[in-house]
Structures are given as C-alpha cells and as structure tokens.
Amino acid sequence: MSITTVETLIIGGGQAGLAMSEHLTKRGVSHLIVERQRIAERWRSERWDSLVANGPAWHDRFPGMTFAGIEADSFATKHQIVAYFEAYAQQIAAPIRCGVEVKSLKKKAHGTGFRAETSEGVIEAAQVVVATGPFQRPIIPAVIPATAGVVQMHSSAYRNPAALSPGAVLVIGAGSSGSQIADELARSGRQVYLSVGPHNRPPRRYRGRDFVWWLGALGEWDAKVVSPGTEHVTIAVSGARGGHTVDFRELASRGVTLLGNAGTYQDGTLQVAPNLAKNIANGDANYLSVLEDADAYVREKGLDLPEEPEAHVIAADPRCVTHPLLELNLAAAGITSIIWATGYAMDFGWLEVDVFDAKGRPAHERGVSVVAGLYFVGLSWLSRRASPFIWGVWHDADYLAGEIAGRTAVGAAVGAVAVS
C-alpha cells in the first residue's frame, strides 16, 4: 500500500478546507487537502434546485474574491457558489486531491503525528485539520414508520416540487430550509402543512441595511457564547426571490396550514404539540428585538438611515394559529410526502482519536483540540457566532494557521538542535 507523507493534512474541500489552505500557504506551511467527492460537494448534491445563499454576495464570500456576474446585494445561487469555490481553489493554487475519502484517522503507533487510511492509500501527517463542517449527517427523527405509506426525506434530498409525488406535503421544521421549501411548494400549487418549532425570525432588511449588516453593527457576529436555551434554535431567514423576511402569517394567508411541533404518531395520525401560538409569538419577539436594537444603534451613532415604522406592525394571527390542529391524519389530509427540515448531526465515526468530550463533541479551544497536532475548523461556535459561515470560517482559519505555523517552527527548531 502506498504511503504519502505530508506536513499538514486538511480533510474536507469545502469552504473550511479552502480557507485553511489559503492561510497555510501564506505562512509557508506545506499541506495537502483531500476531499471525498468534489469541491463544495454539498452545495452540488445535497441542496434543492432553487436554493440561494442566505446572505448577500457582498457578505457571503472570502475577502480575496468577489462573486462574478452578480450584484453585491443579490443572493448567489448554489451553482454560483460552487463556481466561486472552484475559482477560489484555482486562485490560491490549493493542493487538493478530490475523490479521496478518509476511512479512518488515528495517531501513529510509533512517534508523533497521524495516519489516515484513505480510499487511495495511506497518508501520514504531522498535523491534521478536520474541515468537514457542521452539516454531516442528516437527522430524521424516528417518529413516523416507513410503513406509514408516505414518502419521507430529509431537506438535503429535496430537489423541487415536481420531483415529489402528487398530493399534499408536510414540512417539519421552520428554519431557513423548512420555511423556504414550504414557500416554494405553496407557490407551486401544493397543499402544504408546516410544523413550526422554536425559532428566531430576523428581518431580511431594515432601515436600508441587510440583516447580516445589523449582526455586525450590533456585535452579534462576534458573540463568543451561545445564549442558554438557544443552542439548537433555528433561524428563519431567506435570500429567495431577491431576499425577504420570512413571515409565517403570510404563508398562512396563501393556504399553508401552520402546526406546532410534531409529536408522536399512531394509526395514521400525527399528534401535534399545542405550542404553535407560543412559537410564533417568540419568533415575533425576536424579530421586534432586532428592530429595537437597530433603532437604538441608529440613535446612539447618529446615523442617517430611513425610519420604517411599518416594520414594527405585526398582523393578526391566522385561524390555524388561534385554532390550531392538535392531530393530523395523514391520509385524510392527502399527505403523500414528508420533508424533515430538522438539521444535521456531526459524524466523526472515522476519527479514531481520543478527542471528544462527554457529549461526543470535539474538545477544543478555538479549534485547537486537546490532542496535540489535531485541529478543527468550520464547526458552529468554533470561536464565535460567525464561525460556520463563509467569511467567518476564513477568519478562524487564519488563527489556526498561525497556531500550526508556530507548532511547525518549534518542531523544526527542535529537529535542528537534535541534528547539531
């Protein structure tokens, strides 16, 4: 079996891996990226056809390259995002090998460093950066059995309305993915049921500035610690159709039936939690808090930004909120498809290194793991709220490249002393 030896191995050829490569190159650290499929593969094959970025093009990018052929305030399509990362890899001359899957990663039996068993042979490295991102294994809760007579899929497998069987659709999860998919299905003429759990619902734009601009101005991108109880709260925001604020009441006005959290299932009927009004109200409170914080910022800084009093007006609750369904018989509702927009779990089954905490999460400080020479980049809250986003991962990679370069320099100095 062939053995390749590298100074630093980066596992993953998406945004995190490319950002890591750029910063290591700038510091003169030799490295290799391995990607099991293609650059930015999840944008290619695990997203629906009409998906666009949730942030505007001026924001959702690396500092070294703008998007070609689109306006700064528009939202890049998934195809444009793939093309962007391919072009970026060429611009930085990223040393990437695609089609190489890491089957296992272990510490070397003798000496220091790591040994990666891959589909193309063994790679040994002094340092390893895990850049596989936070969205690895789609989560479908074991609620409705496969024998229920409906097609069930995760949002990562959804492509477009025409690809689904005729009939009504139940979408479970109302973050960015669930709300956008439900909107698209409703616009295609489908009868849609949308299960709305706890969520944040920020304005797309307010007083002439995009939501992501406000996150920066208000210091939210730099938040270091997630607020208690909000670790898994989803964010309902959309870049579709030029970008708009997600409004569940507006969806209801177009025929979407809103539901509370999905509960247990028995004899063809799904039980629904009586928490829809509470979830909607909490989402409204989050929305209004952003407006209030923005208004306070404008006053404090003396900015000349147009007022939007109408943005503070919340419409009356639709009937599906005031008189919510507490159970849903799938056959009676004509539901033939269920889309689970319920997020992802990390999957490090191939990482055979004692680097995980009691909850099975990588133990690290700003991406520097508890195992010397092993690093993580691209994870949610790696160093701050911005960490899993395109521009945020670029900054985390800069920090980690400095750590790796320092470690490499120390190793070289020790080796030089030993030789002398």
Please explain how this structure is put together.
Helices cover 28% and strands 22% of the residues. The protein is of the alpha/beta class and 420 residues long. Residues 416-420 have low confidence and may be disordered.
Keywords:
disordered C terminus, single chain, seven-stranded mixed sheet, alpha/beta
Specify the biggest β-sheet.
7 strands, mixed
**Uncertain parts:** 416-420
End-to-end CA span: 34 Å
Please tell me how large the radius of gyration is. 23 Å
Give the % helix.
Answer: 25-40%
Multimerization state: single chain
The overall pLDDT average reads 95
Tally of helical runs: 9
The total of beta strands comes to 23
Strand content: 15-25%
Shape verdict? globular
Helix/strand/pairing category: alpha/beta
Short description:
With 420 residues, this protein is an alpha/beta fold. It is built from 9 helices and 23 strands. The protein is 28% helix and 22% strand.
Secondary structure elements and pairings:
Blueprint: E1 3-11, H1 15-26, E2 31-35, H2 41-45, H3 78-91, E3 96-98, E4 102-107, E5 114-118, E6 121-130, E7 137-138, E8 151-154, E9 168-172, H4 176-187, E10 192-195, E11 199-200, E12 205-206, E13 209-210, H5 211-217, E14 234-235, H6 248-253, E15 257-259, E16 262-266, E17 269-272, H7 276-301, H8 319-322, E18 327-329, E19 335-340, E20 344-345, E21 364-365, E22 368-369, E23 374-376, H9 390-419
Parallel strand pairs: 1-2, 1-6, 2-3, 6-23, 8-19, 9-10, 9-19, 10-15, 11-14
Antiparallel strand pairs: 4-5, 5-6, 7-20, 12-13, 16-17, 17-18, 21-22
Helix pairs in contact: 1-9
